[in-house]
Specification:
The complex is a heterodimer of chains A (about 130) and B (about 140). Chain A is mainly alpha-helical and about 130 residues long. Chain A has 4 helices and no strands. The N and C termini of chain A lie far apart (about 70 Å). Chain B has one domain: 3 helical TM bundles of succinate and fumarate reductases (Up-down Bundle). The chains are: A mainly alpha (about 130), B mainly alpha (about 140).
Chain lengths: ~130, ~140
């Protein structure tokens, strides 16, 4: 059978976790850029800083914060997995199992995370206390 | 993607070239792992404190920042977080630019833009932490 030319990284969990690692990394980097700029407003005046921080408290930005947290958490967990693949002798053997493990952990952390991060927003939108 | 010997995929030559005789790429690889572990604690801790603890983001304002930065502990936390995150993220973006920028000129322009941004943000953030004045009006 003739060999089909293919790259090392085509398909399956290894490539997709690599893609997700890059995308979340870039997203977090761009947020960090903006976040240092908005925090720098504490050197301008309390009024200007508070005005920008108030936008962080609006429902839409609040949901974006959940997205950011999800991106950071995936990047962190997958980063730990990467380190284990690189340094743990059995890492390469269990890289796929570890991906499912961190995915499960991500969901387990994000459910209460979503609840506590958006609690105020939901109360604001739908009444409550 | 076309390198192929007997059906076995072959690693392409890395686009992040070895610079002279130094082990720059090795140290860069190691730095990503070491800074990554430290950042897991710093950044997830930061997100937990800011977004979940004591009413989360709703309680943050100038007074809250003033209270935190009165303590050297949080100043050092934020300083370390700023430096490590910018260098970790900057190095990640450097790799991504090397991977995807096809033209040498484009690559150079993006790399200079990146290094300028990293230096600017690190210096600005450091300045803000060290010169913070709670009595500013």
């Amino acid at each position: 059978m003739a060999a089909i030319p293919r790259s090392l990284y085509r398909g399956r969990e290894g490539m997709w976790s690599w893609v997700a690692h890059r995308i979340t990394g870039v997203a977090v980097f761009f947020f960090l850029f903006v976040h240092v700029l908005d925090t720098a407003l504490v050197r301008v005046s309390p009024k200007d800083y508070n005005a920008v921080i108030d936008s962080y408290k609006t429902p839409i930005v609040n949901f974006l914060e959940v997205g950011l947290t999800g991106a950071v958490l995936f990047h962190a967990l997958n980063g730990i997995r990467l380190i284990l693949v690189d340094f743990w002798s059995k890492g390469p053997k269990y890289h796929r199992v570890m991906l499912w493990a961190i995915s499960a952990l991500w969901i387990v952390v994000m459910i209460p995370g979503f609840y506590f991060m958006t609690k105020h927003t939901f109360e604001q939108m739908f009444g409550g206390k | 993607m076309t390198d192929n010997q007997n059906g076995v995929p072959v690693l392409l030559r890395p686009r992040s070239q070895r610079s002279g005789r130094t082990n720059y790429e090795l140290y860069s690889w190691l730095f990503m792992r070491i800074s990554g572990i430290i950042l897991v604690f710093l950044v997830l801790g930061h997100l937990f404190i800011m977004n979940i603890l004591d009413g989360g983001v709703q309680r943050i304002n100038f007074g809250f920042v003033a209270g935190r930065w009165a303590s050297p502990f949080w100043q050092i936390w934020d300083l370390l977080q700023l430096w490590l995150a910018m260098l970790h993220g900057g190095n990640g973006l450097r790799t991504i630019i090397n991977d995807y920028a096809e033209r040498e000129r484009t690559r150079k322009i993006l790399q200079y833009l990146l290094i300028f941004t990293v230096i600017f943000i690190v210096l600005l953030g450091t300045l803000v932490i060290f010169t913070f004045d709670p009595k500013i009006s």
